[in-house]
Amino acid sequence: MDNSDNNNNNNNNNYNNKNDNTNTSTTTTNIVNNNFEKEYIAANKLKENIETVSHELNIQKNGYTTPNPMSKRQRKKKMREEKWEASAEERRLKRIKKRKEIKEKRRMEKKMGIFKKTTKKKRM
Question: Which of 29, 122, 87, 59 is nearest to 95 (CA)?
Answer without folding.
Answer: 87
